[in-house]
Design a protein that fits this description.
The structure is a homodimer of 324-residue chains.
Chain A: H1 7-14, H2 18-26, H3 37-50, H4 56-61, E1 68-73, H5 81-99, E2 103-106, E3 119-123, H6 129-137, E4 142-145, E5 155-158, H7 160-173, E6 178-182, H8 189-205, E7 208-212, E8 226-229, H9 235-244, E9 254-257, E10 274-277, H10 280-295, E11 302-305, E12 308-310
Parallel strand pairs in A: 1-2, 1-3, 3-4, 4-5, 5-11, 6-7, 6-8, 8-9, 9-10
Antiparallel strand pairs in A: 10-12
Helix pairs in contact in A: 1-2, 1-3, 5-10, 7-8
The structure holds a DNA duplex (30 and 30 nucleotides).
Chain lengths: 324, 324
DNA sequence: ATCTCGCGCTAATGCGTATTAGTTGGGGAC
DNA sequence: GTCCCCAACTAATACGCATTAGCGCGAGAT
């Protein structure tokens, strides 16, 4: 099985120098090097005939772009739930990459080889500070999908804070005065943003707000008329538990889900739940755009995209629990 | 904000040569080069101090492989049904690629740049003969996921023929004597294999077999007691249509599905359908193994993996239609 | 005193590409 | 005939690393 074809091979075949092949390939009219049309054609023919494609590695070493964008995640992509979670991002990334003429390099095990690509997109709900620092330290262009707390990290995120605040406002407008946030509230930025959006909006509206872990005993939520659930996958379970506890959703208590359940979650919620939708495809899209700009020397940006609200049927007029 | 640290930098800092740094780094006891313990220590200290990490690009250039495997599909990966179809293959490919230390290059638009990778994996239900010929003509290692009719194409496929034949045998054992295959029967190899497995098994068993398009009027199937459905996504619709036509499944007619419905199909079948399961993950796995062998100079192979039968509840004892 | 040997290291080379300075040959101007 | 210029290339170099032939040197052998 022969070696792969190199520019030298093409050069020998056509009786020119390797440099000429390189020039023809990159078609640099401005470089001050001129090639006779017929020579150029001979070279192009040979390239066609051999199926030659510039070697990625050589090209990168000589420090040119190879139109490859890297992608890696800080969490496994497969196991069950996350697969469906990541997929829309990847779809967006792939679509946009095709449009800008780039191929995607999926790093199967972390970022050590990130320099093989012109730039990288990193995914992951939560990335440690030290890890982010290492990425920045690489001095290689990258864009995070999802907001990161560290300064100077370019990202395209979803505005979970604003979306959560809007839902709080809707709840307040429907008469709710005692609200609870159920979930970790951290350490991932996406959870921090939700909790902060919740807390700020409640404060601004002057309503009572509490924060509980997801395993909170339902007794502690008896005063609450609207529950804001951080983890969409828990929706079905929460609603069932509430019912089992004698509280019907949305009759006795409203439930707002801060995100969208992925289909992989074995049990889809029985109701069309009030929630919002993370614009995952769009985020992937914009991340690619951003990265391409970055590779092209433009300055880093930090972008938040709005989440679309889904009215659903689990946020209703508040009733005092005495009414039941 | 300086350049990256290189071996030359380390070398200058410690007063040795770049080659020495390389040797210390790779710690090759067998290379015939010996380094005094204290020198080695000085170098290691400098490496520690600077946080040096070998540049992947330089490293790959020196050993002439880039540990990149390409992947491309001949059909779009996203739109609806196919997404869920391809995903398990990709999962298998990615898992195995990580284990063998390769990254994956996702070609966003066809194979023209396939030489960027050490070798490629190609996916697609159906690939034209000419296209296959071009791939072979590239003289660049590749493995197809799915059997291909063209000679000399290395592949890892699923043994649809055997699986279909087994199901025919089960039907015959349950007294079915008039069987129909509903579907295109081509031109994709996977469909050809199913149809051939069906036809051969029916012939061997001496039972009556017909082949109908998927839009066949149900009247034409009135004599048939067992329907073999090529396209799993159509299962729900077929069962509903049969019922609407006065024939209950499996009471009046058995339905065997030649594959597994993907979740994306809006309407999952109402019954646990008798079918088989394509070992998609496993196929991805083995395709990577095969490709790595190929890149390593080993000969091409053609492999078929068995499909797992799922008993289900839609293949029942045959009743003459007069019984109803 | 010379030879040998092995240790510890370096110089040199190659990998495939992009870039730039420089070279060659031929034709036109004077 | 000489000078100059320009089109059309090529030679050389750099990129970061791995590999290998070989060099210098001191110690032990003869």
């Amino acid at each position: 099985m022969g070696r792969r074809v190199t520019q030298r091979d093409i050069a020998r075949m056509t009786g020119v120098s390797q440099a000429t092949v390189s020039v023809v390939l990159n078609d640099r009219a401005d470089s001050g090097v001129r090639i006779a049309p017929e020579t150029r054609q001979r070279v192009l023919d040979a390239i066609r005939a051999t199926g030659y494609v510039a070697d990625v590695v050589g090209r990168r070493l000589a420090d040119r772009s190879n139109r490859i964008l890297g992608v890696f995640t800080y969490e496994p992509v497969f196991p069950s739930t996350t697969a469906d979670f990541y997929h829309p991002f990847l779809v967006g990334i792939e679509q946009r990459a095709e449009q800008v003429g780039c191929d995607l390099l999926l790093f199967t095990s972390g970022p050590h080889r990130m320099r093989l690509a012109d730039g990288c997109i990193v995914l992951g709900r939560s990335i440690g500070k030290d890890e982010l620092a290492r990425l920045v330290g690489e001095h290689h262009p990258f864009v995070s999908v999802g907001r990161r707390d560290a300064a100077d990290v370019p990202y395209v995120g979803a505005d979970y804070g604003a979306a959560t605040a809007e839902l709080v406002a809707k709840a307040v407008a429907r008469g709710h005065r005692r609200l609870a946030y159920v979930g970790t509230g951290g350490p991932a930025e996406s959870h921090l943003d939700r909790l902060r959006g919740f807390a700020d909006a409640c404060l601004a509206a002057g309503v009572h707000a509490t924060h509980e872990r997801r395993d909170v005993p339902l007794e502690k939520l008896e005063d609450v008329t609207a529950i804001f659930l951080e983890e969409p996958a828990d929706a079905a379970e929460l609603i069932a538990a509430l019912r089992h506890h004698g509280r019907e959703v949305p009759r006795d208590v409203s439930v707002v889900v801060l995100g969208e359940p992925t289909r992989a979650g074995a049990t889809p919620p029985p109701l069309d739940v009030t929630r919002f939708r993370t614009p995952r495809r769009e985020m992937g899209w914009q991340a690619v755009d951003h990265l391409v700009d970055l590779v092209g020397g433009q300055p880093a940006r930090q972008t938040l995209l709005a989440c679309e609200l889904v009215a659903g049927e689990t946020l209703e007029q508040a009733r005092s629990r005495r009414d039941t």
